[in-house]
Amino acid sequence: MSEIKIGIPLHGKMAARAFHQPSFRQRLAEDGFKPLYFLSPVYFRSFNFDPEQYFELQVEQYDKYYQKHFLLQQLRMLRRFVVVTETTDLRFREMIESKLFDATLLGMALQMTYVSFLRRIPGMGRLLAGLERQFYITRAHDTYFRENNIQCVLTPGMGNFNFWNEGNFALEAQRMGIPAFAAITNYDNIVNMGYRGFEPTCLGVWSEQMADEVMKIHQYPAKRLEVVGAVQYDRYMRSLELNREDFLRSIRLDPTKKTIFFAGGVNINHYFEIYRLFVEEKGRVWKGDFNFVVRPQPHAKLLDSPGWRVMERLFVEAGVYVSNPGSVDASGDRTRELRLDLWLDEGPDELSYLLRYSDVLVNNFSTMGLEAAICDLPTIHIGYDAYTFGVRFGVTTAFQQRMSHNRRDLRLKASKVAKSEKDLLSHIEKYLSDRSADQDARRDYAVSECGELDGRATSRLSEMIKNYL
Q1: Same domain? 290 vs 384
Q2: Which alpha helices (DSSP H) does 136-251 contain, by range?
Q3: Cα(122)–Cα(246) distance, rounded to whole angstroms?
Q4: Domain identity same for 371 and 461
Q5: I need a labelling partner for 236 at 20 to 30 A (CA). Which of 92, 202, 446, 450 fits?
Q6: Are the beta carbons of 326 and 334 closer than 8 angstroms?
């Protein structure tokens, strides 16, 4: 049987790190697929790729088309908020906050009124998506589909918020009679990213919980849905080459000491607070005798800020190991970050080692908390803000704690939420004394979000596609 050519558009980090990781590409090849990747310009123009397997995703064409049509902008804005959850309520308020000083009072009031009204009308998401498909047709990749004999397409997301480009790509394929499959790439996509833009030939979700949510919130048909698991987390099921002692020595940490791992968000203020407590006042934490690792959120809001440049230098000078997945050199070059996104270099997955060999994770309600649960790493979420002056609500812990996926009972049982510095120190003491505490709850939470944790999610996704073809 000849290879099945499958077109895969990759625009964002999460999709790139899921669908371009070596194990994913290897599994597709073993199952008879030849992936043809359509990379966002920032990826495609940074490296020299095989021209027979890599192409540029026509993001610039999509952006020009979007900017040209005001109604299309309004349809997509509404589609983001017609999925009515606590999370989208918060995102709507965040959008209003971001525009308050740029819009007129009357204009802002009118927008708030009509969005608030329309988003709660039953079936509005389906109507909005239908209007987009009917009146806003793009053909940016038609020639690529024909010339490369692409037989099917796999996209992250379903053309919802942050997945507009991939959605356009899938719709172009469907108009040419090419089956378009989709797979969810993050646990909050269903409740957080708005209504879907197209209906895939079949959608791969992580778990029964996610399947229930997509049917309820997106009116998605059960017959076009399969539970496959979380593709990007297959790697956590594999054994590591280095043991704990060798890994910690490789990053100049002492394997005889406990290791505290802080994975922060985009709020730079949290890093100043963490520096004060874990560096300047480290004697208050486990008698000051511990390894400390800091991993910044790989997002431009943080990494491009002058505050992070200062904090990174301070951490390094204090002997803290900074595991930076998005380092930027003095000239602004992001090559290392992009190589990590696309898994272009051989070598260990440092995050896998940190999640497996650290003793406790301190986090801000990010996806890292789920990854820690998969790797059985105790997690403490910071539920207070030491510094709030001048901070927008969207980056505060109060905002994070009100989001739908962060309020799940199993998530809260699997971790601790520190409501004060005293709480944080107490929880650290507990977990460093007994790493097995809450172990069963972590497992239950990980399974509820990800389904089967057997390292075979990619195989099930591949089988799903082949069955439909």
Answers
A1: yes
A2: 142-147, 164-175, 189-192, 208-218, 244-250
A3: 57
A4: no
A5: 202
A6: yes
